[in-house]
Write a structure and sequence with these properties.
The structure is a homodimer. Chain A is α+β, with helices and mostly antiparallel strands. Chain A folds into 2 domains: 1-89, Winged helix-like DNA-binding domain superfamily/Winged helix DNA-binding domain (Arc Repressor Mutant, subunit A, Orthogonal Bundle), CATH 1.10.10.10; 92-148, Ferric-uptake regulator, C-terminal dimerisarion domain (Dna Ligase, domain 1, 2-Layer Sandwich), CATH 3.30.1490. Chain A has helices at residues 2-14, 21-32, 39-48, 55-67, 109-122, 138-147, and strands spanning 71-74, 82-85, 93-97, 103-106, 130-135. In chain A, helix 3 (39-48) packs across helix 4 (55-67). The termini of chain A are far apart. Chain A binds a DNA duplex through helix 2 and helix 4.
Chain lengths: 148, 148
DNA sequence: CTTCTTGCAAACCATTTGCATCATT
DNA sequence: AATGATGCAAATGGTTTGCAAGAAG
């Protein structure tokens, strides 16, 4: 956390931007909820603590956090974006159930190796990629099979 | 194409829905443009041919085409959805450049195998998954490196 | 004090929906 | 004729933006 604030402060400084209490509060809130969070959650949680920040500010701050490399924007197949810590959070990918939305984080050496090989062959930069798998978890698969 | 119309007609029939000229036109248009298309393209292309169909109808038809297994909805990381043929189109995945949007289709035996293993281990249904890789293509990577 | 920030409300944009009218079966 | 389908225009929902008022350096 201390580290992150420092990184953020440096990033802001380098762009002649200011470290306001709203920006600080958003970053702090992200640290308090390690899961995959959405803008709405932040607004809600901050409000509960009387540390209000408007949606506009939250979205603007999230952009800055992404630019500074502290936060990662992830697509979990919902209509809205999710965010998760990038800093000090080991590299991983997401597997998402198309039915119930269940998210599984994983990282797999063999797949990473194959992906790198594939990227290299295809004119894509290896190792900076990020990928997600959409499918059905066992529970939902069973429900689907019964429905048919 | 003939095959697809037949599948569509059967699907519609099974649901007591009708094969209208608009639905036929949308399906035909999808066959004329094999790439990854978006609803907007369809509207535009159909209009040029004086085979108008409202956005509402296009979206409604796309839903039906997806349900009937003729078309697949793909997420290429844009704010809007893309669609591609599913029927008679061999299984493949997408690699998308985060900067220029370039899309590469691929299918990789080794990765598929690893994915299946991973799914099985993680309580996800193997082999029904679909995944996409986001990264930077070489051209954009070079541009990025120069910018920094 | 100057420049950047905030909050608000309006704007956006892809997609969805209610409803009256029109077209398949 | 009866049930669905269409087009329109309005609604939706997440996100963005213009602008006047406020705060950080």
């Amino acid at each position: 956390m201390t580290h992150a604030i420092q990184v953020f402060a440096e990033y802001l400084n380098s762009k002649d931007l200011k470290l306001t209490k709203e920006r600080r509060a958003v970053l702090q809130e992200i640290f308090l909820h390690p899961g995959h969070l959405e803008a709405e959650d932040l607004a809600h949680n901050l409000r509960k603590k009387r540390k209000r920040a408007s949606r506009a500010t939250i979205y603007r701050t999230l952009d800055l956090l992404v630019e500074s490399g502290i936060v990662r924007k992830v697509d979990l197949g919902h209509e809205h974006s999710h965010y998760e810590l990038e800093l000090d959070n080991p590299h991983h990918e997401h597997m998402i159930c198309l039915k119930c939305g269940k998210v599984l984080e994983f990282s797999d050496k063999a797949i990473e190796r194959d992906l790198n090989r594939l990227c290299k062959r295809s004119g894509f930069e290896p190792s900076s990629h990020r990928f997600q798998i959409f499918g059905y978890c066992d529970r939902c698969r069973k429900a689907r099979e019964q429905a048919v």
